[in-house]
Predict the structure.
Amino acid sequence: MRAAGRAVRARLRDRIAASDPGLLRLTAGLRTVGAIALTVAVLSLLGADVHLLVAGAMAAMVATFAIREKQPAAQAVTLALGLPVALASVSLGAVLNARLVVGDVFFVVLIFCAVYGRRFGDRGTALGLIGFQVYFLSLFVGATVSRLPALCGAIALAFASSALLRFAIVPATPTGVLLRMRLAFRARLAQLVSAQLELLDAPADEMDKALEAVREGTARLHETAMMIQDRLEEGTPDESAARLVQRRIADAEIAAERLGLLLLSARSAERADTLTLHLPGAPAPSVAGPAVPDETGATLRRDLQALHALVLRTGTGDTGTGLAHVRNRLLGYRDEENLPPASAAAQDVFRGIGESARAVLGLRIALDGPQDESDDTPATARSREELDAEDAAIDGGEEPEQEEQTGLRRPTTRAAVQVAVGSSLAIVGGELLSTQRWYWAVLTCWIVFLNTASTGEILVKGYRRLLGTVFGVVAGIVLAGLVGNHTWTAFALVLVLIFAMFYTAPLSYTLMSFFVTAMLGLLYTLLHTYSLEVLVLRIEETAIGVVCGVVAAALVLPVQTDRRTNELLVTVLERLAEVTEAAVGQLSGGPADELLDKARDLDQALADLRGATQPLIHPVTPLRTRRHTARYVVALLETCAYHARTLAATAELLPTHPSIAADPRLRGAAGRTVRNIETIAARVADEHADVQAETGPSIASLLGSDAGTPRYGRITDRVLRHLERLDEAVVGLARPLGVPVAAPKG
């Protein structure tokens, strides 16, 4: 019974870890709700009225979610600086509330300063957010000079409650967050292996569903790897430890993605295209009868289940003879003589399982430290030696300096001007609707500019805000009717809605807006200002705020979506060329480079592009052709990034891997691919550029090798396959981007 209970708890823990990497959403929700509950409890014991309770609750929420630094010491400094900012803001709000013109002008200036403060990093962003939100709080509760001392006391209590929750009750150190993220990576890796197992067994009519699960699992694993990358500097004791974890995470991610592609090829009538794993909605390749014979399929099924078990026990400290036996068998597939008799495609899957087991072993050593080697087979001992040699070669590198834009070209300055203009329009429009609730329009205008960089992004965010508000108003009407005059029931529901708001914020902006609006309906009930007209006015003010934000973004220093995506696309192509050239250079015998750092820079640039294309691929976008083109281009770039990451990881194995050695012929063979990437980047940057991409003989033929042979001398066939697939994907990228493709003359 105890063993069964532990297994259930372990499965539950893994599911939670996988759904919320690092438990960041859970931590944010618990901190915010706890700070609000503590503030309200203390204020109620002191006999505060409902207006002070609401003010304290809102201040506690702001003091908690505004702080974004990762180090506790930096968080403490920002929280300490935030209190005087909040007190000054609420004081000015109380003084200026009755002065219409002066108050409005100050509000616009405050908004400009709050947005401009983003250029000073997380602290500037937090202080600006606190200043704006607390001024809004003063408008919401109708702050007056006579009530200012009590309001300041409630705000000070809210900040103290937030500090207590952050540093004592729900602490989160960078090391602890990184540890939980690594557990989430393990859990998501296990989920991906499970999805791959289902792909192996899926009947022909369910292949698309199984492929979609593998595609989603691959994307979720990559997302977690990027989150870990962002936390490595703060969460590890030194740079070498950070690079070790980075290396092992990258190895595991690449091995898992490659295993999925090999399984898809084994199930298909022909070799699967890498693009199939990255293009949402792409149909699965056709399956001609039973792709894997029963005996081979049973062995593959057994080994995938074993790999799944191996992954789940990584990072847990579990050891045992059974685990060693499984690990030794899977690692044995890295030797050709240990491969079971099967088709070439099935043998590739066994090799992929062996490489995945090696990546899991490396991950286990990085997370758990040295392991018991008494049960090692020669294949396992060889894998350990390779990993040790790689670890010894890891050292730090310098971060490249980035050119900073100045003046109105700086994004923070441009956004500050746009928000100031949009907020001015929102004040005018909002006051025409209501002289008492006009600030909702300003709040919406402010919010749609947060974390957006183009007119299209602002339009999509505004649409989601309005949609969530409409449904939230309906929920607010229902909840207000159910609660009636029960104050503490209303406060309890407010806490539930706030937790839901923070827990869903990274997942769906529409859902977050829904919970915010439903919560406001309850707050109006508490303040005895609730009515159907007030909630309808909330929708109208939100709509005005969205319109004013979009108008300001479109007319004041506009950044068109096409321009924004083109700039980011050029950045992605430049990073892709850098990674490819550096990896091929090292595989050709050139000097060592910071390949994994370059690969992660490519991943980050691609993530930025993926976010910027949301307005183009959103379901409400009327231009269907452009929507399909944007999805196809992003999927092709993800395919290119996968091959480039794999080349970078393989190049970093030199000179520690006995079966991989430098081959000078690679530099010339891959030159065409790099030139094509640069050509496409030039055309995207200038649509009038007279350039052409070129095709020609396969890379294998450029090396003077036969693509049908299993090995190519001193380099592995895998390197050559990735180079060829990358070359094909780059040429495929030229066509949708309008770059002519021509065979070389002569």
